[in-house]
Amino acid sequence: MTHIGLVSLQPLFYAPLIKFQPSITAFPSHPSLSNLSLFLSLPLHSSNVSLNLKTKAPYKMSKAVVYTVIATATLLIFIVLSPLNLEESKGRLNNRRFGYKILERAPTFDPLVTKIERESEQKNQQHKNDFDNNKNVAPRTGLGSTTTVSEIKETYEYLTSGGTLNTTLRLIILFPLLDRDPKDGFVGFNELESWVTQRALERLDYATQVELESKDKNGDLALSFREYLPDLSEKDIEKKNMAHGEAGWLMEKFDVADYDHNGLLNFTELRDFLHPEDSQNKEMLKWMVNDKFKHMDDYEHDGKINFNQFEDNVYVTYESYVDFETNGEGDIPTAKDKFAELDVNKDQFLSPEELFPIIPYVYPGELAYAKYYTSYLMNEADDNEDRKLTLDEMLDHEFAFFNTVHADGHVEIDDDDHDEL
């Protein structure tokens, strides 16, 4: 049967005395109609028709009754699919799409997958180095191009018969590691967030370690400005160009990250330099926010922004992330109310320090995205909406937890979901 919205046409074959005729069938094909248990089979040209209300017994009706029933059913459909409900559906859709954006920055859920990805990257890099050294080996790129899952010894016991990672088995193994406090057979939001945040911290540390090892030429476990940027000329440094990414800008950022002011960046300071959004150094956060201010229209370089600048450049991002975090059910303050709340000294301006409370929303880093990814996973897998996950719920939504494994990380969107955020 071909569905046309909530109405479909189907042939009805009555007794020989009644000719073939089309009929209208209304049925709950829309999720909002799940409680509408009205199935109509109404011939258009019969004086006596049958109304089937999920019973076997036919009921004889006059045309007037039939038309009344049709009108009532139509009214119910329009009520259920009113603009309010459609707007709610649109909100849920936008929230889901925002979740897809989160996946681009989310940490990898399974540490074993992280290991596979890193070993693949390392082998690809070695392959590239061999090619650069004229060893006539063609470079390859992409996960698994030089390393397959089966080549990593830790994966042997987790492979399917086809040699791919058995994500079902991985979830079964990981579940008790997530279910820790309390150990009650469920994974609550805090337990899930703790797990995901740990994965984000590991990724931050790994990225910092890779950078340190690649540039620390003298092996003192710290980087000077010259070690970090050996290709900058003295002329570039003397110019002190403060444009984004230029020598002066990089020197200023380096000096702020150098918390102990010894001219070197240790591991923690280097991580702050590379990922200021996740820094615990307040001076680093202040520098970052000031740097963001400079890109705002009509910014007067006085270290503060007014309400219009806040509303146009900051609030819209804040609102989007809060809406996602609360699954569209939170009471989000207006731009005016939020500005007043943040303006501690009531001078009608916001300083970088006054924006600190909402930095995870307006300038999110790895740790902030870990929290949003947690919300995404909970929203995707929590079928009964009790804010905790069972193993069955997680297994029913394997793709959400292993999106980089299934379909090469590609996120499938329904054919009719093409509107942009």
TrEMBL record:
Keyword Membrane applies: yes
- Domain EF-hand, by residue range, is 245-280, 330-365
Q: What is this protein called?
A: Calcium-binding EF-hand protein
From what organism does this protein derive?
Medicago truncatula (Barrel medic)
Give the record's GO CC terms.
endoplasmic reticulum
Gene name as annotated: 11421378
| Source superkingdom | Eukaryota
Q: Alphabetically list the UniProt keywords.
A: Calcium, Membrane, Metal-binding, Repeat, Transmembrane, Transmembrane helix
Q: Which Gene3D superfamilies match?
A: EF-hand (1.10.238.10)
